[in-house]
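As a representative case, we now present a protein record of this kind.
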Amino acid sequence: MTKILHIDSSSQTCGTSYSRKFSLQVVQRLQDLTGGEIVSRDLVRSALPHVSDAFVEAMFVSAEDRTAEQSLALALSETLIGELESADAVVIGCPMYNYSIPSALKAWLDHIVRARRTFVHTPEGPRGLLRDRPTYIVTSSGGLYREGLGTKVDFLSPYLTAVLGKIGLHDLRFVQVEGVALGGEALGAALERVEADIASVSFVAHAQSAYAN
């Protein structure tokens, strides 16, 4: 059965978050297309700890040489990576905070982007070890960043493109809800556009990568 991993990272949990609302709509659209199972992880309601000294130390020890304590330090990371590995599609709800991603999402990334586990270093640069899969990133922002002067301070999109590509996720499909603080016609146009984007969402599974774990 197809599995859809849904990640939410908005600090707004009372029903006012555009990234939560529309990422859920993308998930529901994918479920309609595939009949897939949904695995949800809310990074705010169930916050992840930041990586620790023990985590960093254990990360550089081969699996067969780790102590029980070192394995425990990486247990949550292994769970999160396992959720990602088993997913055929990923949907990430990500509001823009101060031109970048929420700290809750950064904590998740720090747990899953691990040398020798989800990527390896090569002379040509990092090579991802995870198979590629459709990854829908639903962003929301108060201003406009898709074109014009706003593109100069959009550190969200290029960062996620780089860090997810590092572990092998290259098929990124951004669904952007812009100008939500502008209200009026600007907001109406943005919501109309995102509804159309979601209605056009399609799904084709990727073949297994030769480098996937």
Summary: The domain at 3-199 is CATH 3.40.50.360 (Rossmann fold). The radius of gyration is 18 Å.
